[in-house]
Structures are given as structure tokens and as C-alpha cells.
Amino acid sequence: MVAALAVLAVAGSETWVRQWRHRADAAGSRSHRSGSQTAVVWTDRFGDGTPDFLRLTNPADRAAFRRWFPSIAEYEAMRPRAEVPAEITDCASLLRYAYREALKSHTASWFEDTGIEVAAPPGEIRGWTYPHSPLGAELFRVRPGPFEPADATNGAFAQFADAKTLVERNAYFVSRDVRVAEPGDLLFYRQFGQSSPWHSMIVVEAGPQARVVYDTGPSQGHAGELRRVALSDLLDHPEPQWRPVAGNPNFLGVYRWNILRGPE
Question: DSSP letter at 135?
């Protein structure tokens, strides 16, 4: 029965597969050249809403993402605010921007368009590049439930997702022990009583020099600011509700993007 449903799902999504391959071919995708027989895997082995065709199953791809994603976020945190992309206005928009840009092909035009500079390119993701997947530009899961092939076109994915949706639909819980966090992991908080209670931070380095970056978001009519903070300083934050410790009920824990889910 499962095999039969899988066959029907692929057949029913045939048009999307053709469109996806056309876009990938036009973009010069290494993974899906013209004439490729690579099939889209319309399954969700973890039942977390993320299709398996988005998961970075190759260790080299996961490593490349873990370098690009935090590097992009940290670069924006170090730029003068006037040079930061206008779309970055709060913690969730920083996540969306860095996530999307990490998954793109980092060509010369990408560097020119973003103004981002790196000492040495972190390597490219080979499995797929944004927006060359069956989802097109709709990158973030916004509806509950496991992935089904119809979700590719029924609005289950979107270009926008707030912090609550990012943690609940696009990432999974790892631990409340911040010491296990790796570069590219996320710290989530819920500050009760605030108009925007969900907050996120990006781990950009682990170990003795561990640090995070985040956007404070607008407050009392003033624009937020991007901050780059040592994890040790965060652990000693003067406001206990911001300390990433298990005893803090406002700290939800360390989370990891669903696309990185798999053998560790």
C-alpha cells in the first residue's frame, strides 16, 4: 500500500517535477542536468513536515550549510546598519535571510548582489540550491502535519514565516543544554507577556569562543539592532529570562533546522 501511494504521489506531481527540472537545468544545477533521471523523493521520513528532497543528506552538504548560514548572519551583524538588507528587521527575518542565502548558489553575481565578503568560500551545497526545488521560492513550512505531495502547491510552504512558525514547523528540538549547540543551530525563547514573545538567536561558533548573533527587533517605535554576543556573556545576562540555561522557563532550548535532520 505504501509503495502504491508513493507511485501515485509521484505520478500526480509529474507536472511539478518537470517544472522543477526545467528551472534547475536553466540555472545550471550540477545535481539535475538536462536529461537527468534523478527522481524527486516525495516522502517525509521524520513526519516533521519537511520533504526528504529538501534534506541535506550528504555530510559535505550539511557541513557547507553549517558554514554558510552562520557566516552570512554574522556578516550582517558586523555591517553598518545602513548596509544591512532592508528585509532584516527582527530575529525571524535574520533567520529567513541567512537560511535562504545559504542555500543559494554562491556565484560572482551573488557576492556582488549581497555585498557579502568571505575570507575563503565555505564550499557549495551540491544536493540542491534555492530556488531550484519542487517548492520553488516557497521555502518555509507554514502548516502543521507531515509532508504530502500536494503540499508543494497548496500553500503549505511560503517565503515568509515568523519565529514561532520557524521553530514549530521548520526546526526540531535538540537539547536544553546549550553546550551541545553547533554552528548553525538556533536558540529559541518565549518571553511571556510581550507583544512579540518568540525570539531566536543563531549560534555562529561553538566551543571556548562560542558566540551568537541576533536581531533585537523593533521596540517602542525604534528599529532593532543586530548583536554579536559571546555565549559566556549571554549566560551571565543581567536579565535571567535571557540566559540559555535549563532552569530558565523562557528558554525553549537548542533547535536545529529540519533539513539537517538525519544521521549525525
Answer: T
